[in-house]
Amino acid sequence: MSSSVSSSCWSQGERKSDLSAADSDINVEASLGPELIRDEHIWFKDGNIIICAGPYHTGDGPMYGFRCHASVLASRSPVFKTMLQLPNASGRQLGGTPCVDLLDQWEDIRDLLRLLYGFPIVLPGRRHPDTLKIVAGPMRLAAKYEMDGILNQLAPILERDWPSKYEDWMHAEKEFEQDYYDRHPDEILTGMTVDEYQDPAAAVQLAQQTRLLSILPAAFYDLSRIYLRTPAIRKPDGFFPRCANTRLLSRDDLERLAVGRERIAKYAAYQLGQNVWGELITGDALQLKGRCSKTDRTCLAYISSWLRTKLAGSDAMHILSSDPMISLDRMAQQLEADNHSSEYLSPTCHTCRSWFAHLMRKEAKTLWDKLPEIFELDSLTS
Ligand SMILES: [Zn+2]
């Protein structure tokens, strides 16, 4: 993960904010209107259209100009294609080149056009808190102007952080945890500063706005783990608990969050235990087949007792219901370890414990695959 991200995500230079190098004819025309700031990259000498945006619309600042090619815009966006066929509403020109005024944020237009023209974009590492800030603007504009190529280019960045497969999610979780400990060797993960995280509420909002539905199950699951809306309370160790800005969510998405969180809690409280005990019949069969290496074949009873301690009690239930993916994986890891101080696990054989570890991960994967149903996301795709 990169250690920091500069104010600009673009790798080449900084934006020039003066007109000293501008074409003289454009200087003359610009001096009659709002101050013009040419983009350092999107200002092609053979460009035949200037996209203008910025706070000049309300008289609060300069106009940012992007001289580009109408044919390029039209070929990548049906919306631009239609728009550019219409008569120029303002009739305004700069240096003989027609201007098109857009009311979108000028920074978003800049990023969109730079992506369109293939300028390299520097992206932070997995789950970096700045990733959403970097891709949200151009993605929203790409959705607005129906630029599928840009959406397809940026979608994998978010799908990397909120993947649809259980294995990818667990890989991301473990990589993030390891990365965090590397950077903060003396800290505990639960006391992480809010700046360390992306806000999954913002991811849900962006996914809905851009129809990137593939990230919604993981983003809702991530969101369901967070109970604070604002980082109001600084913990004694100086860290804020993780929070999510649920004000970004629509009413429907708030309902999805509430219903899904309730279902996960019920799963942890009832269904998980039923599934595990139901599988014990299969465990009996396994032992009867003679794969257990203990002559008295008591592993099953010991592991069952160990599981009961894990699945019982309010503390255990809270942890399990707030993040069953991690809880089940940690139980699997404990079962797979060979040295145990636990009075329940130390008398058991590796074969039986491995079978239970497999059971835990199978449970987690089954639950993960049900996330679209749990958060009622299926209706979005129909
Ligand atoms: Zn055994």
TrEMBL record:
Listed Gene3D superfamilies: Potassium Channel Kv1.1, Chain A (3.30.710.10)
InterPro entries: BTB/POZ_dom, SKP1/BTB/POZ_sf
Domain BTB: residue ranges: 47-125
Species of provenance: Phanerochaete carnosa (strain HHB-10118-sp) (White-rot fungus)
Protein name from the UniProt record: BTB domain-containing protein
SUPFAM superfamilies according to UniProt: POZ domain (SSF54695)
